[in-house]
Structures are given as structure tokens and as C-alpha cells.
Amino acid sequence: MRRIRVGVVGLGRLGRFHAQNLAGRVPKADLALVVDAIEDTARSVGAELGVEWSCSIEDLLGNDTIEALVIATPTPLHAEMIERAAQSGKHILCEKPLSFGLDPTVKAIEAANSAGVKLQVGFHRRFDPDWRAAVDRMQRGELGDVYLFRTSLRDMKPPSIQYIESSGGFFVDVTIHDFDTARWMIGEVDEVTSFGSSVAVPAIAEIGDIDTALVVLRFASGALGVIDNTRAAGYGYECSTEVLGSKATARISHHRRSHVQWLTAGQAAEDWVADFTERYPDAYRLELEDFLTSVAEDRPVAVTGEDALAAFTLCKAAEESFRLGKTVKLEHRRRNGEVLYDKAGTG
User: Fold this and answer.
1) How far is it, in rounded angstroms, from Cα 265 to Cα 306?
2) Which CATH class is domain 129-278+307-346?
3) Boundaries of CATH 3.40.50.720 in the chain?
4) Predicted pLDDT at 148
5) CA terminus-to-terminus distance, the chain
6) The CATH homologous superfamily of the domain defined by 4-117
7) Residue from 269, 37, 242 nearest 143 by CA
8) d(CA 31, CA 134)
9) Beta pairing partners, 1
10) How far out from the chain centre does Cα 331 lie?
11) Which pTM was predicted?
12) Looking at the chain, which residues constitute the CATH 3.30.360.10 domain(s)?
């Protein structure tokens, strides 16, 4: 397969991680340019990876030799950058969410669709080998009818208050991955009921946000789901899922750097990953490879803008449920092969 020339916009922790993968770990990619608004950051990453750098996205969009870009900038910039990239004919992989607003999200998706470019969203869990293997077996019928879905996403320690203030709120920043996983593994969601608190970091409550949440789902199939999230687990980063079915139960929970258990008098200890970059190195690489294969072979992407819109809508439903103390009911419909969500009301 031919190699694809790619640029990366936004060189924070995740953008730099993508750039490093594209520079040396993704055979289908030629990293052509890295872009960041901070000159020192752009220059240092460019020097580290041996590629051209810039402080302006115009240098990427105006380069006809670059076919695709990865957007890892702050969320408020995503929608506009998607629209501009689409107008330039570039294929796009954008980190979640596409926007903090519904209208800009829809507008960005429509811009990509109208331009005929591919838009993939960064729900990396769909590409993790453990999750993928479980879903493959579920799709073959080995699990049977799903009764219960449970998933946890827990950070070891919270990010800065400055980050949280601009994160779009707990559900959009954290739970959005779990909503996408729920739809991917189980199916569409009819009801969302959520609870939240600020017990770990009082300063988060002072800005009107939460650090811990529990979300209960009712799927269209009748199955139930439970999501638990926290910004301050303390022991490490955890992302685990369990699906209980009529024929079997699938559990996904791998969080160790090595498989050595250290035994001392009366105790057993094992290591634990600290963050998502340690837990998901393969998933992020495979996500990029799948995106570039879609570009090279002109096939649909695995995670669409409409998938991002559905997860975002579920996040807003969870936020409303938490604020009002009520269950939020949802309706979903198909259009052009994609599922679109509408809020049906509260009860």
C-alpha cells in the first residue's frame, strides 16, 4: 500500500504521541509537518522527529503533497479546523470531541461529508486488541444475548484546574469514551441516568464540575449498563469492561506493565500503568494505521463523525440527568446508514 503524507496539528501530550507514532511506528505514514501555535514546542518536536515544523495550520492546508492531518488541538479549535481541512481536500483524524456545541459538531461533519473527505474520530478503544477480540467474538454470537454491560474509566490523578475549566465538563471530557464503547459493543441507548459528586478534589466543585460519576444505561435491546468514572483513583489508570451474556461473560482488564507478581511476607504486589499512553500504545498506533488505510484504499473510516455526535449527545444527556436528578430518554434514527440521536424528554 502506498504511504500517506500526514501532518499533525497541536503538539500537547496526545498530539506529540501521535506525531511520534507517525514518525516511526506506522509504516503507512510519512510524517511531513508538525504544527503548534507555540514556536518552541513546534521547533522542538520537529527537531526531535526530524521533520518540518510550523506555527500556522495554513502551511499544512496549503501543502498539496500532504493528504491527511491529525487534529489534537484544544477542543474549541476542532470544528473550525475540520471545516478548513475539508475545504482544502485533506482527510482528517480528529481527537474527541469535535466541539463543545451541538451545532458546530453537526456543521463540521457536514463540511467533511460535502467535501468528500474522510473524517475519523479518536475513539482509540475500538482499535485496542483486547477490546477488538472481545467484540469479534460477541459478533460471532459466542456471548449470546447481552444482559449487563459494565465499564470503568479511572484516572490516577486529576489534571490541573485550568485544564478542567476548559474541558467541556466531566461527561464530555471523560465519559464520552465509555458512551462510544457502549454503543459499539452493545447497541443504541434509550435511557441515561447519571449521578456525580466532587469528593476527591474540592476545587473542582468550586468551578461547578464533578470528579466522580456513575451512569446507568438502558439499551434499546433491554440490556442494562453501568459506567463508573473518576479523576482520582490514586492507585493508577484503569479502563476495564465486563459484558454479561446468556452464553458467556467477557472481561477486559489489563493494566500491568509486566506480568511479574512480587511476593513478600503476607503481601503480593504488582505494577500498574499510570495513564492512557501506557495502557494503549497499540490502540493509538492501530487507530492511525486504520485511518491511513481508509485513505489509501478509499474505504469508509471505522469511527465516523456521526459516532462522535452520538457519543456527544449521550454526554449532554448524562449532564442533564445529573443537573435535574431525572432520567433522560433518547430516540435514535438512521440516516444514510448512520445513527442519529434526539432527546425524547425526561422522566
Assistant:
1) 54
2) alpha beta
3) 4-117
4) 98
5) 52
6) NAD(P)-binding Rossmann-like Domain (3.40.50.720)
7) 242
8) 32
9) none
10) 23
11) 0.94
12) 129-278+307-346
Q: d(Cα 246, Cα 268) in Å, to the nearest integer? A: 34
List alpha helices for 217-324, DSSP H: 276-279, 281-297, 305-324
Reading the block at residue 87, the C-alpha cell is 475545504
All three cell numbers of 291, joined, read 485511518
Q: How large is the angle between the packed helices 13-24 and 39-49, nearest 10 degrees? A: 20
Q: Which residue has the cell 503524507?
A: 5
Asked if the bond preceding 281 is cis, omega within 30° of 0, the reply is no
Non-local (6+) Cβ contacts of 323 within 8 A are none
For the segment 312-346, what is each residue's pLDDT rounded down to a tens digit? 999 999 999 999 999 999 999 998 889 999 887 88
pLDDT digits over 257-303, tens only? 777 788 889 898 888 999 988 999 999 999 999 999 999 999 999 99
Closest CA to 319 of 163, 219, 169: 169
- At 236, the pLDDT band (50, 70, 90 cuts) reads very high
CA 339 remoteness from chain centre: 18
> What integer best gives the mean pLDDT of the chain?
95
